[in-house]
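Entry:
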Amino acid sequence: LRLLSLPDFLDGFLGKLLKMRVKMSNAMAGFKSLLGMNAQTDNTVEVLEALKESMGTVRRLFRDKERTEFIIATIPTIMAINESERLADQLTLEDIQVKNVVVNQIMPDNVDCVFCSVRSKGQKENIEYIKNLFNRYNITEIEFFDKEIRGLEALHEMGSKVLG
């Protein structure tokens, strides 16, 4: 959410900075001319304006439904679900497209492990809650892997299990 608000924050901040810089430049140019000094070229304003335009480009890209979609990734715990709900609400307010929710680290059934069975049962209840809460989104469930997904090979392995 902080990343999403960055372009708006920087846009406002840079706008104020630009106004202040123009005033300072005009004052300094007047002061230098009184002292008989030549004004030096200063491209600070151009650099700030270019940065401000870049932030506008980022803001437009975030909201471009043809090119950008945010995918919410969560795990089946109440805290993570609530955080994801807040993210979804904020993305909707910001008019940023969300179509998919990924539920990660789902414990498989394991009757030989009491902890695993209890955890799996709680997650199943939370997954039902997720399905009701995010019913307008496509939901993808990903089982807990026995190793951390790192690197291209592990990503391909996970992709083949998830996508078939």
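DSSP finds five helices and three strands in the chain.
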